[in-house]
Amino acid sequence: MSNIIEVRDLRTVFDERVVHDGLSLNIKKGEIYAIMGPSGAGKTTLLREMLMLQEPQSGSIRVLGYDLKNIQYKEAQKLRQMWGVLFQSAALFSSLTLKENIALPLVEYTDLSDAMIDEIVDFKISIVGLKQGDGALYPSQLSGGMKKKAGLARALVMDPELLFLDEPTSGLDPISVKEFDALIVKLRDTLKLSVVMVSHDLQSVYDTIDTLAIIDDKKIVYEGSLENLSGSNSDFISRFFNMDINKVGFHE
Ligand SMILES: Nc1ncnc2c1ncn2[C@@H]1O[C@H](COP(=O)(O)OP(=O)(O)OP(=O)(O)O)[C@@H](O)[C@H]1O
């Protein structure tokens, strides 16, 4: 499998504070890749750097073959349309209906007719498990789980290859978390997506991912499968999980 994202020797500094130093990772095409680590370890910052929302001090980031440091404006525009992003808050516009929220990137970036946009939006509403009747509702009329699904439908509306999720299940009840996790796996399989997510939820990670990366002390201290993690002899990893990680995988 080829790498869809490569980060090499990343260094990020805010004022005097070094957040990343010598951080490297590889994300393969088609995988679900989770980034975990203690609060303040720089997970969201890393995601923002991959999304060109923030620049590191040094090191390189390649996404879908583009070197983000030397990328031209036009290429950057193209790249932004090849990924979808769901941030923690889902960030829906309160004055727009669910359908209008999902349609927004199509209205902004394409010349498609209203009828075509309508058709695409209806399709995205159904693939994330919302009902067509929900389309006319405003964000204040949606449950937390519905908001996440609406945010996901909007992230998928341009048919991206790559999906970024920042704490996608935060604030959801355990049943909605399970449902959302299953949805992510199903979408990865049916839409042939690669998924990068920041998560705090160990159970969610166990149910969903192919590769786990753990950031600590400014770099990646583990990158690999969950099976190998249980054999890993790192103090940090046992402290971080603070539980018998062998048990978690079998928990239903
Ligand atoms: N724009 C900024 N200016 C200054 N410091 C920042 C900025 N963004 C992040 N930081 C600092 O960088 C560090 C990493 O923050 P980040 O949000 O990436 O951590 P995180 O691992 O995602 O944390 P959490 O799990 O709590 O969300 C923190 O110390 C934070 O205060």
From TrEMBL:
Ranges for domain ABC transporter: 5-242
GO MF annotation, one: ATP hydrolysis activity
Source species, domain of life: Bacteria
Keywords, comma-separated and alphabetical: ATP-binding, Nucleotide-binding, Transport
Protein's name according to its UniProt entry: ATP-binding cassette domain-containing protein
Species of origin: Sulfurimonas crateris
